[in-house]
Each structure stands twice: as structure tokens, then as C-alpha cells.
Amino acid sequence: MAWHGVGVTDIGRVRQSNQDALAVLNDLNLWIVADGMGGHAGGDVASQLTVESIESYFRQHHSSAEGLREPRTAPTAILRAGIESANQAVRTRAKLQSELAGMGTTVVLLYISKDSPFPATIAHVGDSRAYLLRDGTITPLTRDHTLMEDRIKLGILTPEQAMYHPLRHILTKGVGIERTAGPDVSTHHLLPGDRVLLCTDGLCKTMNDEQILQTVQSTEGKSLEAVCQLMIREANRLGGEDNITVVLVSHQEEA
Fold first, then answer.
1. What's the CATH class of domain 5-254?
2. pLDDT under 50 in the chain at which residues?
């Protein structure tokens, strides 16, 4: 069965521009969300260039008739290479345009195989996230590349302490910052009825996991777009301190 995604982005209530970018590529079973780094020159350029570079790389390695040209293990390698290609594109653009020096972005992307049991490959850099929504539960599928997440892993801070820490926005990885991006890549088997949420931190740093789940559950029977719009409205109601981008992917029968 086919999978279908819908994406919505919003400037929020505080920012002067939207530095988020997204791509909903249902024909490729590929979905991408990126968040240009706040405070860095050209964050909007970095996020859009990253999304475009990954799509271009993926299309070079994909055929609608044959699926991925490489072996079944290829999605992990292709997504990793696609992000590294974007990393190089961002760094090259920054070198060519001095006013863009220092720009960078997060990225999270999802590819779902057409073969049952629907292996889903997720790659990410930074603190944009992927969640699995299944049977009334929400499960994070990514771990933030942030200073706070590292301190939580080491037991220095609790998640509650990290949520309000003044250094909570400091990333340890980003596309375009270092010579290599070093994405984390993982594979998860989806079931009919599952939904996968991709989002920037404008959503997940405003709403905790339980609030996101409750918002989704409150829209039972609604379209994917209606669910995305409600998440955007709720994040804005809670402050909207950053750009907010969400992509929700589900079985096409549910779309």
C-alpha cells in the first residue's frame, strides 16, 4: 500500500522570517524537514538548499518503476550520502557568498519502502525530530544532537532540567557547519495504521510528547492536513516562539 504525507509550515508568533523548509515527495516515498539555525546568517538559504540537494540526490538514485536501483540495504547509504551532499552544497554556497558565512541547518528525513512490512529509514542531523504514532502511543525515533541531550545521556541533567536550561538550543551537529555532517540513520518497521511525524523544534520544544499525542488524538477522523494545522495552532497558542513545521505521513487509505 502507498504512504502519503502532508506538510505545513508557519512563521510562529515571534520570528521575523521563516527559516524552516520542507519537502513532501509522495511520489518518492520521501519526506524532509529542515530548520535553518536561528541567529546564523542565511538560515533560510541553508534549510532550503539542504532540502533541494537531498531531493536531487535521491532522484538520481531512484526510479519510480524499479524503486531504489541499489540493493535493499541501500536506503541507509543513500540517505546518509544525500545529507552529506547537502552538507557540501551549503558549505560551498557559504564560501561563494561571504554574507552567508556560518549558515547551517538541521534536517530530518524519512523514506518508506513500498515492500511490506514497510521498513522506514530515518536520517537526521540536529534537533528536528521524528516520532512514531501507533495505537495511542508516541515514540521518539530520533535523539537530538544538542548539548543538553548529551548531558542527559551522561546523567548530568534530567530531561525536565534540560527543558528550561539557558543552553538548551546549542546544537552539537548541523548541516553545513563541519566538513562532514555525520547523520544518525535508523530503520523501523511500520504497520498499517501507523503515522510518522517529522517536525522542527518549534513544535517539540513548545509541546511535550504527551501534548503532541493528545493533539493528534483529538483529531480522530480528520484529514492529515487538519491534524497538521491543529498542531501548528496549538504550538502558536502556547507561545509560537519559533518557526513551526510539521509533516505527517500515514497510509494513503487514512489520508
1. alpha beta
2. 64-66, 70-71, 254-255
